[in-house]
Amino acid sequence: MPDHIPLKPIMTGVLHVASLLVQVQPDQVEAVASWLRAQPDTEVPVTNPEGKVICVIERTSERQIADLTQALADTPGVLSASLVYHEILDPSQADQLQEERPCS
Predict the structure, then answer these.
(1) How many domains does the chain have?
(2) Whole-angstrom Cα distance, residue 92 to residue 99?
(3) Phi/psi of residue 33, each to 5°?
(4) 8 Å CB contact between 71 and 5
(5) Distance of CA 23 to CAs 9, 19, 83, 94, 104, Å?
(6) Sign of CA dihedral 19, 21, 25, 27
């Protein structure tokens, strides 16, 4: 596993917030969760011993999200890494509570 995925300074004026569901071999859950926690702007709010890890990431580009997803998929013990949520926010409003909007 690489130590971390470097973030290239891409200033797009938007913030991408994404959530990934990572299926992991049960004996690798803690190693994968620890690696994810070491990534910049990445949280791991949920793990379970059966092999599920959920992470929330913030990046400045979709490419950075794709790079992290691919790095996870290439990690020993990871069975799959699936994007389950993605939202694009204005960084100046990212910390404000967002209104619920229907999906279109």
Answers:
(1) 1
(2) 15
(3) -60, -40
(4) yes
(5) 30, 13, 12, 28, 28
(6) positive
Q: What is the mean pLDDT of residues 57-86?
A: 93
pLDDT recorded at residue 13: 82
Q: What CATH number should be reported for the domain holding residue 50?
A: 3.30.70.920
pLDDT tens, 9-59?
A: 444 588 999 999 999 999 999 999 999 999 999 999 999 999 999 999 999
Residue 34 placed within a domain:
yes
pTM, two decimals, is 0.76
The answer to the question of residue 41 being in a domain is yes
Find the mean pLDDT for residues 50-74.
94
In a domain? residue 97: no
Query: 52 forms bridges with which residues in the sheet?
Result: 23, 48
Domain encompassing residue 82: 19-91
Does residue 101 lie within any of the structural domains?
Answer: no
